[in-house]
Each structure stands twice: as structure tokens, then as C-alpha cells.
Amino acid sequence: MAGRGGAQRPNGATQGKICQFKLVLLGESAVGKSSLVLRFVKGQFHEYQESTIGAAFLTQTVCLDDTTVKFEIWDTAGQERYHSLAPMYYRGAQAAIVVYDITSQDTFGRAKTWVKELQRQASPNIVIALAGNKADLANKRMVEYEEAQAYAEENSLLFMETSAKTAMNVNDIFLAIAKKLPKSDAGNANQQRQQGVRLNNEQTQPSESGCCK
Amino acid sequence: MSQECILSGMLSVTGKKVLHMDRNPYYGGESASLTPLDLVFKHFGKEPPKGDDVYGRGRDWNVDIIPKFLMANGQLVQLLISTGVTRYLEFKSVEGSYVYKRDGKIHKVPADEKEALASSLMGMFEKRRFRKFLQFVQEFDENDPAKWQGVDPNAMPAYKLYEKFSLDENTQDVTGHALALYLNDKYMNNPCKELISRCKLYSDSLSRYGKSPYLYPLYGLGELPQGFARQVAIYGGTYMLDKPNLKIRYDEQGKVVGVEDDKGDMARCDVLVCDPTYVPEKCKSIGKVVRAICILDHPIPNTKDAPSVQIIIPQNQVNRKDDIYVCVVSNTHQVCPKGFYLAIVSTTVETSSPEQELKPGLDLLGPILEKFVSVSDLYEPDDDGKESRVFITKSYDATTHFETTCIDVLQTYRRITGENFDPSKIQRQSEDGCQQEQQEQ
Ligand SMILES: Nc1nc2c(ncn2[C@@H]2O[C@H](COP(=O)(O)OP(=O)(O)O)[C@@H](O)[C@H]2O)c(=O)[nH]1
Ligand SMILES: [Mg+2]
């Protein structure tokens, strides 16, 4: 069970520290949240992506100079579609990517609502990135780069235009978040997790926690 | 309510397609935890206090309307594990379990041998008899009559079992109410099998985390329905919150065909699961529960400043028919800011002045800053769903744990599907937590 975690190195040497963070994706339905995750975690893109990813969360690591940042990435599982995303979803998240579709002004408006919600409800130190996705569809653009950038600056958000289709800026936005996250022990997900107990069957632990704990 | 959330979870992980609609803009109905604190005041028709400093930050409050704890080895824990919902939740033990005695004092229910020896709950000789009883219960094996010591669990009534071990009335109260968690004394004449298995559940639960047999989720009970909901969504279920005025549509034979929302859109279904509030015409009232949610700025007196406790007031000790329960949680469970405590006192209503019935419990709390009292009806379905395909769960009863709720859930699951819930049929998700390494410079 253990051992598949981020500490793995081909030559067996473990150096630097490992920080684990919960990252959530937010935004209107069909802006490409699941596609961004799939691109980042598996390097894939599907034109007709089923609307949910079908996993509790996916993990992916990013290596900075002396630190391995392990993201535990939570997708909405489609619960945003009828405005039914539960507060539990972003509880304890240290990072969020709020996504809109550059070809739709509506989704940008909705993204702003999510930013407000996070500022109100999420942990005060949460790192928020704004992603203007589907940047490959520049000919259908409805949200200007400058407009989004100005909004991001006002609200101290990281900002990039991305494309899950071409992979443009996908790794970069996660990397930028990794850099901005506090690496002190206090900011580490594992630390916060120690607070409570997770239930499990001592004898037969299902595959669930695999590498995630 | 959360039975529906649990059922959607069980049904979706075993391959059914689930659409979940709720009239409220949040998950869990009555089992939600209200936040921020202003919402609690509004819920009970009270004016929230002006200014931010009275009760700390409003959003640090997650207030349950109905208090319940989980038995650490109980059925809800099993369901959380088998459905995989446990990954979204974190729990903490409740620090202590106390029982009230006629003398007006509360006594800790011993959590181990050492505490038992030091306990003022019973005298020396009684302790010895009680230990023999507990040993018998622990070693009892339903399938091995050789160990029954002459007790036929299916025939001998509970009171006879007490007699066999010469337990006095006081010890019977502690056993039946603080360990077996019976609400009243109706069990005394029933076969003792259930008493034995309930006592066993208590001690098995106690042995899991040590301090008490009870667990409580961080951020409140409202996390439970949310966790089940997320699991359903991951298995492809759809959620619609904030759907008021839902109308259930039937065919000529009275079989459900779907649910219509206030825009006239119809969602078709073969089976409908709901709580009694959606189909009052198919339910009957079976009693009332009174609950008082109290905000305190101090721990409960005589509990060694425990941040969380349960106190059971057995009915006999205060000349009632039904027990009174006190559940206390606080900042360690992330349900309120530091320095505050939430105590909920509840009981089954027996008279025409229900709030008065809570007095023995309220008296244990010390000064109360704020009190929200409510009386709710308990409903039970009057339709088994065979013809209508409408399966109705029961209202939350006065018990302070989820065992009866789970029995309802498992029975309803069987009524719906015609078979018992079988965790081995759960379709595991292959992508769960899969991972790749990626190097970035
Ligand atoms: N052209 C283009 N299409 C995209 C991009 N990202 C996602 N899509 C498509 O947009 C649709 C919705 O994507 P999805 O990831 O399911 O969105 P979600 O509902 O936010 O998770 C799918 O058909 C994707 O193939 C992108 O960057 N460019
Ligand atoms: Mg999606």
C-alpha cells in the first residue's frame, strides 16, 4: 500500500521534502475542468469527454527544486451542473483552479461567483488560480485576455489561458500553483489530516487509499 | 434526510442509476448541519445577534438540528467503509459517556477495567456481578449453544437474564440504557438476544478507539449526506438541489411514474425513495421528539472539562417512560469557535409541556447562553412500496446513535431491490487515486 507515494525515486534516494495539497476545480459545466485534470494527470484529451472522471480524486506530483509537491486533485463529479456542489468539496482545499471558457462570457461571470464563494468559505490562505480554458478556440473568443487578467490582478489570483486540447499552459498553471503554495509544515495537508481519524477495516483495506495516504 | 443519501449511495455503487432531488438548497434535509450561525437563528425564528464578536465567526459554526453519534463498530461505519464514502470524512472519538443517577449526579460509564474499579457507579459486590455479566455477553456466541450457560437467547426475556446474574435495578438501568441504549424499558420482556448483541456492540465499539464507543465527524453530521452525495456523483448519479414544490406523479394503478418540478419538467423513474415530508399522505405519526440546542461558553460541569460527551438519563431515574439524552460537541469537532460548546438535549415527548420534560438534562449544563427548542413529529410509512414503488424512510427517532437509522436503510434497500445489500457487488472504480510521476524543472 505504501511506497507508491511521491517519495519514490528510481535510484532509491529520497531527498528534499514532500508536501501534499488538496486542489479543487471549480467552474461552470463544460468549461473543461475534467479535461484539464485528464491532460495534467494522464496527458490525454478526449473530444467527447464523459462529463465526470469517475474517481474520488487523482494525484499527480510536481517537482520543484528541493520539494516534491503532490496534488490530490478533486474534480466536481458533475455536481456543479445543477448548482449542487457541496461545501465539503472545497473544505480543506489549499488550492483551487477556477475555470472559465474563453468563448463564453457567461462562464467568466460564473467563475467570478466561484472566486467570491471561495474567498468567503474556503481556508483563508487558499491559493486560487483562474484558468481561461479552450484558448485554442481563439477565433470564437468572447472574453478578452486583458479583462480577465485585470480581474485576476485585483483579486490576487494566478492567471493563465489554457487549452486542455493542445496542452498549452496546463502543466504551467499547476506548476505556478505549486510554487505559490506554502511549503512550511503548517501548510501541509498531511498535518491537517492528523486531526481526525479515517475509518477503515483493519484487515481488508480496499484499494481506495492506494497512494493517497 | 440522510437515509435517502445513504440509500442513493448504496444503490448507485451497486449499479443503479440515481437522480436525487431535494427541495432544500443544501444536502441532507434535517440531517444537515446549519452554517453560518445566523442561519441557526433564522431556522428557529430568532433574531441573530448584532455584531460579530458575540459568538465568534459565524461560519465556524456547524450546528446539527438532530444530534447523533456513530457507534465505532456499528452499521453506519460498516456502510461508510463498504461504499467508500469514508474517504471524504474524518472522525474523532467522543471523549466520554456518562449516565445520570437518581442522586442527581452524573457518573462516567467505565471505559476500561481501571475506570470500572474506581467507579462510583455501583458497589463492590455489584461490580463483581456486573463483570460476570459482561464476560458472559462478550463470550456469547449465537451459534454455539454450549456457551449459553443455560440461557436460551430466543426465549429468555431480558429481565430474566438480569435476574440470572443478580444485577440490581440500578445496574439494569445502566446496562439497558447506557450500554444497550434502549430508549425505554419495553425491551425487558423481549427475548434477551437483542440485549446481548447491543451490549456487545457497545463493548466492541469501545475497544476500537478507547475513550468511548462513539464517533462524531469533523464539521458536523451534515458531512455524512454530503459524502454519500459525492460518492453517488462519482458513480454517475445526478443531483439537483433547491427544487421546491416537487410533485409525484402516479399511473392509474397508483404506481409512481415520475417527479415533476415547478416548471413542469418530469423526471421519469421506476422507483422513488423519499422521506415522509414529501408524501405526508402515505405516512402516519407515531409520536414526537423535543430537542433543545444550547450554546454554552463552558464545558459540562463534572465531566473533567471534556470537549465532547454523551450523558444518558435513564427514564427510571427521573420517573419517566423515555430516556433523556444530552450530546455535547465543541471546537475539537470543528462545529463551533474555540471556547464554545454545543449541547443538545432531547427526549420523546410524553406530556403537553415538552420543554419542561427536558429539565433534568438542561439542569446539568450550567449557564446557557442561547437555547433553541423544537418539537418534531415522528413519521413512519403507511405504504410498503410494493404497489406504488414509493419507498419511504422513517423520521429520525430520539436515539442518539445511527443504529436504528441503519436498520431502516438496510430494510428499505431490501424492499426496493428484493435482496440484501451485498458490499461484494460494489463496482470498484479502477481509476481511483491513480498516479503518475511527472518531472518539472
Ligand atoms: N477546443 C477545446 N475543447 C475543450 C477543451 N477542454 C475541454 N474541451 C471540451 O469541452 C467539453 C467539456 O469538457 P469537460 O472537461 O467535460 O468540462 P467540465 O464539465 O468542466 O468538466 C468536452 O467536449 C471537451 O472535449 C479545450 O481546451 N479546447
Ligand atoms: Mg467534469
UniProtKB/TrEMBL annotation, chain A:
It catalyses: GTP + H2O = GDP + phosphate + H(+). GO terms for biological process: protein transport. GO terms for cellular component: early endosome. Keywords: Endosome, GTP-binding, Hydrolase, Lipoprotein, Nucleotide-binding, Prenylation, Protein transport, Transport. One of its GO terms (molecular function) is GTP binding. The keyword NAD does not apply. Gene3D superfamilies: P-loop containing nucleotide triphosphate hydrolases (3.40.50.300). PANTHER family: PTHR47978. Belongs to the small GTPase superfamily. Rab family. NCBIfam families: small_GTP. This is small monomeric GTPase. It comes from Pomacea canaliculata.
From TrEMBL, chain B:
Keywords: Cytoplasm, GTPase activation. Gene3D superfamilies: FAD/NAD(P)-binding domain, Guanine Nucleotide Dissociation Inhibitor, domain 1, Guanine Nucleotide Dissociation Inhibitor, domain 2. GO terms for molecular function: GTPase activator activity; Rab GDP-dissociation inhibitor activity. Residues 421-441 are annotated as: Disordered. Its main location: cytoplasm. It is found in: Cytoplasm. Residues 432-441 have a biased composition (Polar residues). One of its GO terms (cellular component) is cytoplasm. One of its GO terms (biological process) is small GTPase-mediated signal transduction. Belongs to the Rab GDI family. Regulates the GDP/GTP exchange reaction of most RAB proteins by inhibiting the dissociation of GDP from them, and the subsequent binding of GTP. This is Rab GDP dissociation inhibitor. It comes from Pomacea canaliculata. The lineage of its organism: Eukaryota, Metazoa, Spiralia, Lophotrochozoa, Mollusca.
